[in-house]
Amino acid sequence: MRVFEGRTGWTLLFALGVIFPFAASNDYMLTVMSTAYIFALATVGLNLITGYTGQFNLAHGSFMALGAYTVGIRFRSGSRSSRPVSSLQSSARWSASYRCVCAAITFRFSRCASATSCFS
């Protein structure tokens, strides 16, 4: 099991994530693995902010939820701009702008290290 630790393990995980969409036999498998990778990415980010820095952060989930909500609204609207790439870019812009607003409010009222909790 030492093979899967460190850089080799992360490289293997990334390679499997890139290869899997082409090897999936149906949409169900692709949906389940996409959801698993999204939650794994959110978990790694939350682990970094709470585990290594010791900060308690509720904003992490709200940024992820806002991005998912934006993508869902863009796909649901059926507009011409509901392509996947433009929807992801739009969700990234909305999430980043919300993140900046949260950081500005937090920094204004606390003026301490907790302002960095909005940049997870």
Give an overview in words:
This protein is an all-alpha fold. 75% of the residues lie in helices and 0% in strands. It has helices at 6-23, 27-52, 59-77, 84-110. The chain is flat and about 50 Å long.
Summarize the structure.
With 120 residues, the protein is an all-alpha fold.
Reconstruct the topology from this structure.
Elements: H1 6-23, H2 27-52, H3 59-77, H4 84-110
Helix pairs in contact: 3-4
Cα radius of gyration in angstroms: 17 Å
Which range does the strand content fall in? under 5%
Spans of at least 5 consecutive residues whose pLDDT stays below 50 are none
Q: Number of folding domains?
A: 2
Can you give keywords for this protein?
120 residues; mainly alpha; 2 domains
